[in-house]
Design brief:
Length: 299
């Protein structure tokens, strides 16, 4: 089972040796590829061999690139390695519009419920109102309860002066965390043979990850509660490392506890069942649990 999330913050040379991922800095570190779920490249002075790219694809490792401002800007994923790629694509394209609307309704309800749980954990008001909004979500969320809930939620989290479009430092940190969650969902979708550009609700012609954006919605509160917990809003390496390490946060799914990466895999696996059975009740979505993080490798 993959569980390591590698975070490269120093000038490095990345290569493959004896079927291991090798990171050469002042010292040299080797890690089995089969243990790695994602690699985030933050430092601009990182070189890697073509063998690294091939190994990442073969082992379904997400390779995340960052720009000069240290923000994730790209995801490298495997290219159609599923043994029944056409079967999955046909299944994905055959989803009826009513089923898509019910799937989106389920996602939005769980997202709002997770937001309510986040407020409860943080000792803030508004949870009861959010839960009421979750119960009002209709098929396809045609009354846009998601947007209304977001206004209530962020008001309670950060105060009435905060907006998601402002230059507030918290938005930069939130966006970084959301990008990491998005990459984890994209990785799992590709592993199960899905075409990420074909979304359930999101349908931008310029977005290669519409489906990832659909499913990552339920994971946003994992990032939100971390950002609220920050005593200093400093754009440091440690802050960004902690955001990557949120993939090791414990969440609940179908009565069991998983780290976030494993929960994403279970969620997408359940989506396979939804597509095969044409039944939204097979869908399993993560819920918030006590925050618990395992150690991560930070380089």
């Amino acid at each position: 089972m993959t569980w390591r999330h590698i975070f490269i913050t120093k000038p490095s040379k990345l290569s493959v040796k004896n079927s291991q991922f090798v990171i050469k800095q002042e010292n040299e570190v080797s890690i089995p590829f089969q243990d790695i779920a994602s690699i985030t490249l933050e430092n601009e002075v990182v070189t890697l061999t073509q063998s690294v790219l091939a190994a990442c694809a073969q082992h379904r490792i997400s390779l995340i690139g960052c720009d000069q401002k240290k923000m994730p800007v790209g995801i490298f994923t495997a290219f159609h390695q599923h043994s029944r790629q056409l079967t999955v694509l046909t299944m994905q394209q055959s989803l009826s519009k009513p089923l898509k609307k019910r799937i989106w309704q389920t996602i939005v309800k769980q997202k709002i419920s997770n937001q309510a749980d986040c407020l409860i954990e943080l000792g803030k008001d508004g949870a009861r109102k959010l839960q009421s909004l979750a119960n009002q979500v209709e098929s396809g969320d045609k009354s846009n309860r998601e947007a209304y809930a977001a206004r209530v939620y962020f008001l309670e989290l950060f105060g009435d002066e905060f907006t998601r479009r402002s230059s507030d430092e918290r938005n930069k940190i939130l966006n970084y965390g959301y990008s990491i969650m998005r990459s984890a969902v994209a990785r799992s979708l590709v592993a199960y043979g899905f075409t990420p550009s074909l979304g359930i609700y999101h349908d931008s012609q310029t977005n290669a990850f519409n489906l990832a954006d659909d499913f990552m919605e339920v994971l946003r509160p994992v990032v939100d509660r971390y950002v609220v917990s920050l005593t200093e809003l400093s754009w440091t390496v440690q802050t960004r490392a902690n955001l990557v390490n949120l993939l090791n946060t414990t969440v609940a799914l179908n009565g069991a506890k998983y780290d976030c990466s494993a929960a994403v895999d279970e969620m997408i696996k359940s989506f396979v069942a939804v597509c095969r059975q044409q039944d939204v009740t097979y869908l399993k979505l993560p819920t918030l649990s006590d925050m618990s993080e395992s150690a991560d490798l930070v380089i």
